[in-house]
Amino acid sequence: MSTQAATAAARRSKISPERELELYEAVLDLLREGGYDAVTMEGVAARTKCGKATLYRQWKSKPVLVTAALGASRCSFFTGIDTGTLAGDLREAARAASRRKGRDTELMEAVGQAYVMHPDLREALRETVLNPEIAALDAMVRRGVERGEVAADNRAADFVAPAFMGVLRVERLFEDRFTEAEALPEFLEAVILPALGVS
């Protein structure tokens, strides 16, 4: 292939940022609708009227495409929260998660299932989706310890992030118990804050 033809081919295969976001949104919609197994290169291509060859050329495989879509979406519940107190931070985090239920919660559930079922995707999901949220919650607790709000040896501090993520994951299984109130804020007030000794 001549240099001119190669340049023309590269130009044709380049995906604009807007088109990339459109493709990512299709991936996220498929994740929400049916979980990781529902995402296929063929399905994304059909939904976006994009050539399957273009998807493979750009992302190589489904795990790479899914990870890129999740990384671009950064559906963050907890990053950037800093109210000045640990109780305030955790209450705001619980409210933020409750406000963003629905599409984001469906995505978190799909990601959680994929994390367990697909080892090839696990490390990418940890790095892209889970670790930033866990780090944000851990930072809230660390600041609380540094301010003297929580004893450094309080063992409940290690369980804040797992508890938050766990309740988000299983909340729908207990809808009958939380018809009036959101599960995470209620769990925070009834379990986490008392265990930490803050109010």
Largest sheet: none
Weakly predicted, low-confidence segments = 1-12
Structural Rg: 21 Å
- Report the strand count: 0
Number of helices: 10
Percent helix: 55-70%
Structural class: mainly alpha
Number of domains: 2
Molecular shape: elongated
What's the order of the H and E elements? HHHHHHHHHH
Task: Report the portion of residues in β strands.
Answer: under 5%
Domain HTH tetR-type: 17-77
InterPro entries: Homeodomain-like_sf, HTH-type_TetR-like_transc_reg, HTH_TetR, Tet_transcr_reg_TetR-rel_C_sf, TetR_C
Protein name: TetR/AcrR family transcriptional regulator
DNA-binding region: 40-59
Structural summary, described in words:
The longest helix has 28 residues, at about 120-145. The model is unreliable at about 1-10 (pLDDT under 50). The protein has 2 domains: about 5-75, Tetracycline Repressor, domain 2 (Orthogonal Bundle); about 85-195, no CATH class. Helix 2 packs across helix 3 (about 40-50) and helix 6 (about 85-100) runs antiparallel to helix 10 (about 185-195). It is mainly α. It has helices spanning about 5-15, 15-35, 40-50, 50-60, 60-75, 85-100, 105-115, 120-145, 160-170, 185-195. The protein is built from 10 helices and no strands. The N and C termini lie far apart (about 70 Å). The protein is elongated, with a radius of gyration of 21 Å. Keywords: DNA-binding, Transcription, Transcription regulation.
